[in-house]
Every structure is written in C-alpha cells, then in structure tokens.
Amino acid sequence: MEGGAITQALIRRFVAKYKVDMAEAADPRLESYASFNDFFTRALKPGARPLAAADLVCPVDAAISQYGPIEHDQIFQAKGHSYSTTALLGGDAALAARFDHGHFATLYLAPKDYHRIHMPCDARLVRMVYVPGDLFSVNPLTARHVPGLFARNERVVCVFDTAFGPFVNVLVGATIVGSVATVWHGVVNPPRTRDVRAWDYGSGGPALRKGDEMGRFLLGSTIVMLFPKDVVTFVPDWAPSRPVRLGEAMGAVARR
Questions:
Q1: Facing residues of 134 across strands?
Q2: What is the pTM of this model?
Q3: 172/164 Cα distance (integer angstroms)
Q4: pLDDT digit string, tens, across residues 153-177
C-alpha cells in the first residue's frame, strides 16, 4: 500500500491503537513512510537497544512464549501441546537430532513490536530452508489451542554455525504476515510454493556479529531458537509472558 492519505491514516490509527513509541524510531515522522510496510519494518535510532555484556542477547522485542529443554524430539508449545523438532525443521531428522536434549526459546512479536530480527551471538549462516505451511495466528491464545502450531505454519529455517556448535532460528509466518525477508537473501516469501526450498551456503555463508540485523517480518509473528545439549543457560528472570527487548541478556554459554 503506497503513500497517500489512506496510508497515512492507517499508520496513525495503528500507532494510536498499539501505543507505538515513535521516539525510538530512526525517523519518527509518520508522514515519511511511503507505505505501511515501510512503517512496520522501520529502523530504530542508534543506541535505542544497547547490547548487554552477555554471551547471548535477546534478538527481538517480544514476549516470551515458552523456553526450556527439548525433550528428545519434542518442544513444549503450551499446556497440553508439544511438537516435533523434526517437523519444525521441515522433516530434516538429521538436523533435528543435533538438538536432542538441547534447549529452545519461543518469542512472540506482537503487532506493536519492532519487527527486525537480530543475531543473539556471532555466527555464520550455512543453510536456509523455506517450509510451506498454514498461516494460523500465532498469538498466545492460538498457541494454547492449535496443536503443533509452529511446525504447521509457513516458516523460514535459518541454520548457523557458531563457536558453541549449531544454532537454528526459525522465523514463523502467521495470518497477516505479508512476507519474511533476510539480509542475505531479501524477500523469501512470496513466492509461496507447495514445496520445500533450500539454499546451502557451506563455508561461504555470510558471517554475522552479535546484534546484527538478520531478517524482518511484515506484521506480528514468532521466532523459535534451538540450541544444542549442554550449551545454554537462560537468565534467571526469564518466564513465560515476560516482555523482552532486543539486546538484553538472554543467557550464558557453557565453555567447552
């Protein structure tokens, strides 16, 4: 939706309804955004999200949905619901096995949140996979009632190599998510296909530093992060429903 009075009115209503803090934006002028998508993926001004002195920092502004241990191949979604790591990763059982008895963190980005996704640590991209699927809402109510939600929705699986081993960040689409984009590829979807699509980068994949932008959503959604066994200890004050902000301490990494 490009420019004009309708776009400006939509943006102003959105800011008022969700109490968006435009003082944090690199450009706080609502009239400067040519489209709603430009506004929604707006950049933050320098220094708005300082990085904590921690091994792992929170990669987004969000609310904690769930976090904790991966029980073999099962990730906890909500009371009464778990889902398969293999299913989340588009059927890649070998990749899923690398996270058996590891840890996960699921973070929900509400419409009001800053919608760029950053790196929790230094890493090099080795693979990206687009997995087609449904577009259910991913809000907390839906997570409590739709079995296997995050392994059923459309998603982009980003596989990284780090100093502590593999790390995966899954960008999960939702009802009103127009697209998912990454800094190394651009828009991944659309196109929306019925088939899994994969990009292998090997040792030549881009190296990203902690705090670097890695992708963005158009409208609210969820990320699911996976860590190997005996690697991460989350900060003590983490709890489901707790709001978190980009750059704050997320956890410590075991020294190997």
A1: 153
A2: 0.92
A3: 24
A4: 889 999 999 999 999 999 998 776 6
